[in-house]
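Quick one, probably user error.
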């Protein structure tokens, strides 16, 4: 078995691992290209909740690319909620104002 350019040579059995590896590399290249086209300075959050899906639609890129490009993005006046640990399959959003965890003490008035 040899891998040369975009052709995978085989005899009798089709080798799946080189095909999957090739597709993953292509996907990674596309995600990096999309993510590099998203500039954090061009992101303007409007409303009380802004989802990554909203930004992906506005920019015309994949959700994964938005998650990758906006890692560490900390817009003023918003807090990130949801899955922010991984760019793949991110489904996070930003909410306006402060957020408090369930275990945070409440301030009595």
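Nope, works fine. Designed sequence:
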């Amino acid at each position: 078995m040899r891998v040369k350019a975009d052709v995978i040579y085989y005899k009798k059995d089709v080798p799946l691992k080189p095909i999957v590896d090739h597709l993953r590399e292509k996907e990674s290249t596309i995600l990096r290209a999309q993510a590099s086209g998203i500039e954090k300075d061009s992101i303007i959050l409007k409303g009380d909740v802004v989802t990554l899906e909203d930004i992906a639609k506005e920019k015309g890129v994949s959700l994964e690319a938005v998650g990758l490009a906006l890692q560490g993005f900390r817009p003023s006046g918003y807090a990130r909620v949801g899955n922010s640990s991984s760019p793949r399959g991110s489904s996070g959003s930003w909410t306006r104002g402060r957020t408090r965890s369930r275990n945070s003490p409440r301030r009595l008035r």
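The two ends are 73 Å apart (CA to CA).
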